Amino acid sequence: MAKTPDVSSFGSMDSLPELRMVLIGGEEESKSSNVKSSTGNFILGQDVFDMTRRTAQSEARQTEILGRRVTVVDTPGWLWSHMREDTPKLDQIEIQNSVHLCPPGPHVFLLVIHVESNLCQHVQQSLLEHLELFSCDVFPHTIVIFTTDTSESDEKIESKIQRTPALQWILQQCGNRKHVLNICNREDRDQVRLLFEKIDTMVAANGGRHFSASNVKDLKEEILAIRERASKRAKEVVEQRKKAKALLEGKLRIFYI
């Protein structure tokens, strides 16, 4: 089941202004790095999301940043080359249920895209179909995060974005709101401060409203049921293998006798 926020230090932060964000985005089949998790760790300033593996379930982490109580929710990614029907059902449910891990709902969705991504021709339909999981239009609450792990100048990065029609289309859907994060330079907290300012500007433009989690059905019970069925099937497979092994060993003993 989707993991609840780490609440070990909530008490000391209750009086701080909140900022709640959900990381979303597609992945390339040829890429092994977990860009969303890296972005979450960069924002939080600590390694709390596992970057060595694909994110299998949504999980939330919270800490104090720049005088604010910040919650970041990491989610499973989908393949840019896939339509929603090709994305595993459990991944879809985990993505959809992510908004319930930062109640009463996120201030912002951060659509994370590595600036070197080679997006396929299906990216537009893939994005639209996967964002439909949230029931309502999330674009007014979305900022595109372009991540880079090189020392390229902002001008070169901007040039790459301008040369890529798919990225231009995505930006248009998100009101041309974007932010570039050099995730290799974690000591540069000005990058995070500027991101917060852009989020605050967007929230103000939305009348101070966050995305309401009440717009999305809470599927915690469905997630639990799916995982229990998968666990049961795995146990049955193990038992079948044990029985088959025992049967084979028994036949071999008879053969050698």
Your description of this structure?
This protein is α/β, with parallel strands linked by helices and 257 residues long. The chain folds into 2 domains: 207 residues, Rossmann fold; 39 residues. The protein is built from 7 helices and 8 strands; from the N terminus they run ββαβββαβαβααβαα. The strands form 2 sheets. A 6-stranded mixed β-sheet has the order 3-4-1-6-7-8, with helices on one face. Strands 2-5 form a two-stranded parallel ribbon. Helix 2 runs antiparallel to helix 7. It is globular. Belongs to the TRAFAC class TrmE-Era-EngA-EngB-Septin-like GTPase superfamily. AIG1/Toc34/Toc159-like paraseptin GTPase family. IAN subfamily. Keywords: GTP-binding, Nucleotide-binding. InterPro entries: G_AIG1, GIMA/IAN/Toc, P-loop_NTPase. One of its GO terms (molecular function) is GTP binding. This is AIG1-type G domain-containing protein.
What is the CATH superfamily label of the largest domain? P-loop containing nucleotide triphosphate hydrolases
On the 0 to 100 scale, the average pLDDT is 84
- Per DSSP E runs of 2 or more residues, the count of β-strands stands at 8
Q: Bin the strand percentage.
A: 15-25%
Taking strands numbered 1, 2, ... along the chain, how are they ordered across the largest sheet? Answer: 3-4-1-6-7-8
GO molecular function: GTP binding
Keywords: GTP-binding, Nucleotide-binding
Pfam family, one: AIG1
Domain AIG1-type G: 21-220
